[in-house]
Amino acid sequence: MEQSTVFAARVDRWSRGRPLLVDGLLAGVIWLVFGLLSLLAGPTGLAVATATVLPLAWRRKRPAALLAWTAAVFVVQLVVLPIPLPANIAQALMIYTVAAHVASLAVRLGALGAALAGSLAAGFRWSTAPDYTRNAFVIAAFLAVFAGLIWLIGNVVRGRETNTRALGEAYARLEESRRQRERFLAQRERVEAAREIHDIVAHSLTVVVVQADGAEYAAEHAQPWDRTDARAVLATIGRTARTALAEVRGVIDVLRDPEGADDPAGPSVGLADLGRLVAAVRAAGLRVEIRADPAVFERTPAAVRLAVLRVVRESLTNVLKHAGAGATARVVVERTPGAVRVRVEDDGAGPAPGVVAAGPGHGLGGMRERLRALDGALAAGPRPGGGFGVEATVPVAAGGGRP
């Protein structure tokens, strides 16, 4: 059954792609069968049959014009011949063609009206005595019912084809929507990857710049040169660069393997990662006081833990950039009913006179967008007593876990 259905579908597609060829073959077959049979009415019958049947080769190309032609030939037939012809099947086929392939309701109703009028005229022309009138109405009624059924079938077929086209257009729109959604998701992945790489590079370069500036100052002013301090500075720079390189490679690996990004477990982020982040910032010369609830990294979803780490990293990077020398940062990560709260505050006075502050970046905006994706919120601004503060709240349920 399935193979026959597939074969029928292929035949249908082939015939729809070659309407002139198919209609030409159909006209030829009808003429060979019904046209030649019309020769029983003599040469006049053959001529009328030929004029009726052969134009069917263009029935789907110009249905309205051929309907008028067929009607005119039928009028001639009623005048010159007192009997029906086998080729009159062509009139029925034209009625079906107009009903099935013409969109104009007026033309379709005109075809039905012409068919009914022709049925009545044929009934009186082909009726015989002795009960001439009764026979005329019986013949007319039979032809009218037959023509009406043909017209109705054509309209049903036209409606089916219209629905099929509508479904095809709807499917095409859905397919285009799917492709647009895929492009949007790919673009969003690229934006998120770019934002992640920006955060990694910004934090790492900030640490590197602070260490390099400090080493440059010490090399110029410190007496004598302390090899131990120099080695510590270089070790911090190397460790920071290697960590940044590994994290950037991890982001690129996620882009290369999108299925890995759908892992429900998410990236493994724990309290140790927060500790390494704080240690790197301290090595850059910033005093950091931290109080972190271990439960935040033990009983919360991976997405929430990753968001916490990103907020702390971006906030401490901003402290390094903007707080100035001698600043102290305080980090608090605590669990509240149904959410995780992160506070990062500093008491910095800003860059020293003559030092150019880092230009405005996209860190706060990026944090807000990330937290918004988790139904979280971010508040940031100067503190009344001096310095700057950042406070983020991330609902635990947004990450897919239980409060």
Question: Topology of this structure?
Answer:
Blueprint: H1 2-17, H2 19-37, H3 43-53, H4 63-80, H5 89-101, H6 105-126, H7 132-221, H8 227-256, H9 258-261, H10 271-283, E1 287-292, H11 302-322, E2 328-336, E3 339-346, H12 363-373, E4 377-382, E5 388-395
Parallel strand pairs: 1-2
Antiparallel strand pairs: 2-3, 3-5, 4-5
Helix pairs in contact: 2-3, 3-4, 4-5, 4-6, 5-6, 5-7, 6-7, 7-8, 7-11, 10-11, 11-12
Outline the structure in words:
With 403 residues, the protein is α+β, with helices and mostly antiparallel strands. The protein folds into 2 domains: 168 residues, no CATH class; 213 residues, Histidine kinase-like ATPase, C-terminal domain (Heat Shock Protein 90, 2-Layer Sandwich). The protein has 12 helices and 5 strands. Strands 1-2-3-5-4 form a 5-stranded mixed beta sheet, covered by helices on one side. Strand 4 and strand 5 form a beta hairpin. Helix 6 packs antiparallel against helix 7. The chain is rod-shaped. The C terminus is likely disordered.
CATH class of the largest domain: Alpha Beta
Give me the secondary-structure category. Answer: alpha+beta
CATH fold node name of the largest domain: Heat Shock Protein 90
The number of helical segments is 12
Domain Histidine kinase: 308-398
Protein name: histidine kinase
Transmembrane segments: 29-54, 66-85, 105-124, 136-154
GO cellular component, one term: membrane
What descriptive keywords fit this protein?
403 residues; alpha+beta; Heat Shock Protein 90; 2 domains; five-stranded mixed sheet; rod-shaped
In short:
This protein has helices spanning 2-17, 19-37, 43-53, 63-80, 89-101, 105-126, 132-221, 227-256, 258-261, 271-283, 302-322, 363-373, and strands at residues 287-292, 328-336, 339-346, 377-382, 388-395. The protein has 403 residues and is of the alpha+beta class.
